[in-house]
């Protein structure tokens, strides 16, 4: 039995889709979710749905009963992630889970990004747990940019603080497939994979791609981190998260979100999805 946490989230749902497309029977998959009533579509496919709330340890050990392998999709609640992940690891150990596959951050232990801190703590907790595990250090999602494409087209600009730093992005589906491979095939325990896109781009190049594919003029406007943070808050992001995103851009300007690693290609058996294809799909 394979359990995927956060299974109604964007990444978790794609991991389950990839497991099924790769031949894992639906009745061998468990969807761990905070709100089971929101997972009717998964239940309708013959997938068992169990309540597994990162913040409620009492739900976790029962959820993991009979589970041999677990995909721990990192929590989206920045600032609470480490304690939530520790709850999952503790419950997995108690339940006798034989492999945890965790979605971390690219070059986590060397990363200057604020986002890296809780991932480093989780990787340490996994090491201390004694539970066999594989760590998937994901780079940036292409969707971090393409989901805001409408705003870029409306204003004729992509905003950021990354200067000419490169982003080796891949799609959520690419990373989900890597997680499905790692949890459903042999030989991944003890491995740390640096997962980065097959091709990389600067935000200047990204704006050029958007211009070419949309036939609308779009430029990249680089801003000081403080100004970028203020703009993100103005468009509705929480202050803390806005600061994290601006910090990530500053880190990217120094190479924190770039790698020439081929681990992602190796796991999924193909190049990752080019950013141009992601832009076309949204357009």
Automatic annotation (TrEMBL):
Pfam families: NAD_binding_10 (PF13460). Gene3D superfamilies: NAD(P)-binding Rossmann-like Domain, UDP-galactose 4-epimerase, domain 1. Residues 6-181 form the NAD(P)-binding domain. InterPro entries: NAD(P)-bd_dom, NAD(P)-bd_dom_sf, NmrA-type_oxidoreductase. This is NAD(P)H dehydrogenase (Quinone). It comes from Marinomonas balearica.
């Amino acid at each position: 039995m394979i359990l995927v946490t956060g299974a109604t989230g964007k990444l978790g749902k794609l991991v389950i889709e990839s497991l099924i497309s790769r031949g894992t029977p639906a009745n061998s998959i468990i969807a761990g979710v905070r709100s089971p009533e929101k997972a009717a579509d998964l239940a309708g496919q013959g997938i068992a749905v169990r309540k597994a709330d990162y913040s409620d340890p009492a739900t976790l050990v029962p959820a993991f009963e009979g589970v041999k392998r677990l995909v721990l999709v990192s929590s989206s609640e920045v600032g609470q992630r480490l304690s939530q992940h520790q709850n999952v690891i503790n419950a997995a150990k108690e339940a006798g889970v034989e492999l945890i596959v965790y979605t971390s951050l690219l070059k986590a232990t060397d990363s200057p990004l604020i986002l890296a801190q809780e991932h480093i703590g989780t990787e340490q907790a996994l090491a201390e747990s004694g539970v066999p595990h594989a760590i998937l250090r994901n780079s940036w999602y292409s969707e971090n940019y393409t989901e805001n494409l409408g705003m870029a087209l409306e204003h004729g600009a992509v905003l950021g603080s990354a200067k000419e730093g490169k982003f080796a992005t891949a799609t959520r589906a690419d990373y989900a497939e890597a997680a499905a491979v790692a949890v459903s095939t042999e030989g991944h325990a003890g491995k740390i994979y640096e997962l980065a896109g097959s091709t990389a781009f600067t935000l200047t190049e990204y704006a050029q791609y958007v211009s070419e594919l949309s036939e609308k003029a779009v430029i990249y406007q680089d801003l000081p981190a403080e100004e970028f943070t203020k703009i993100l808050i103005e468009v509705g992001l929480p202050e803390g998260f806005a600061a994290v995103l601006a910090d990530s851009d500053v880190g990217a300007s120094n190479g924190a979100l770039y790698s020439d690693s081929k681990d992602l290609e190796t796991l999924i058996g193909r190049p990752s999805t080019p950013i141009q294809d992601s832009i076309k799909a949204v357009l």
